Amino acid sequence: MNYTVHDLTTFAHALLRAAGLPPDKAQAVAEVLVEGDLLGHTTHGLALLGPYLGEIESGSMRKDGAPLVVSDFPAALTWDGQRLPGPWLVLQAMEEAMQRARTQGTCTVVIRRSHHIACLAAYHERATRQGFVMLLHCSDGNSASVAPFGGLDAVFTPNPVSVGFPTSGWPVMVDVSTSATTNGLTNRSHKEGQLLPAAWVMDGHGQPSCDPAVLFAEPKGTILPLGGMDSGHKGYGLSLMVEALTGGLAGHGRADPREGWGATVYLQIIDPRAFAGAAAFNRQMDAVTAQCHASKPARADQPVRLPGERGLQHKAQSTQTGVALYPNIMPLLAPWAAKLAVPLPQPLN
Q: What is the CATH code of the structural domain delimited by 2-165+187-276+311-339?
């Protein structure tokens, strides 16, 4: 069933308001979650709304307040997010960083004790539309599901890295985990009794597997680092990089007591106008992206795409024809709608 973007955003906003979020925070969370589904990230869009509502209800996600300033330099800020909604915190940080980057050339905001920030790709177009390059990475020191390369015990979360940059056409948006897969996909696949497309997990004895059930068995398995059993040292190194940029710079992470589901965030805005200039940046990026598109495809029916291209195509089509939610999302939200007395959105078909 397809739904309009407006109806889904209004529905999510109404649920979050009924749960107690102030209007601005509810709107930020609703827009970011719907953007995730628009881009095709079905495990990190409205699939997160029910869990977020549960976190609000339990008090684990704080409803009111603002981040505390831990450190403030012209091009570097550190905030304590006080477990406020992650999407709202990230959007606030983006606005501050873009404003400062216009005069400083760049600005980095690190946020500790944020709640979960949803789909990283959902933020980048807001920055690239204004000509900025944006890096956004996160970790969660409150949990661990990914083992270091060569180990059996989980140390990391999937620790995603992302970057968005403008071109003369559509922006390029990279959003990848430093692990072989995500918690969202393994949890969903396990609940549905599905195997993963490849051996992205490892059982508790160190054997690679396509079955996410090994993550819930004893001894517990782990998600493999990006690169898997063969070259997982690469993902392992990237995971450590994310830990340094998030927990290290924020001064809060795996060395501290766990507080619950959350995120430590690294956000950097770069203004090409402060370097060789916007025209020079676009000239170079247009050339390299054109060369990628022109590369002879390994399969004739699958031309080379740029990162984020399929998501932006999906967004453009969904904006016109409606958003096709993953089948289990609305049934899981229906009990919350009944509990909070919020009408369900009407599908288009």
A: 3.30.1370.60
